[in-house]
Specification:
Blueprint lengths: L7 E4 L5 E4 L10 H41 L6 H38 L1
Length: 116
Amino acid sequence: MAIKYVLYVSVHQQSSAVVSMPRAQDVLVSSRLLAKALLLLAYAVLKRLQEKAAEELIYAVQDSLNDVRALFNNTKDLHGAIEKFMGENATLKKEIEKFQAQMVERTKEKACCKSA
């Protein structure tokens, strides 16, 4: 015996599915069509969720880019500013290493002078 219901399926902005069944005499829907309708509904919901996730990801990336740009005083050439910053960072690291080496030498000299 075939199922005597019509399925009205709609996917809303919030990715929720609404299924309503009006009067039984409207249309005959076989179980195979019902399965196809449910698969289509599942596909539509998943597609909407993926679109929403992708949209949220794009907004998150844009927010991160705006934050980075703000760190560099909203420069128009963000790539150049980051390269300059990395170069300055490397230079400062080398200076710190030299300073540490000098401090080690001074400490050795002080230790030798105290022991003598």
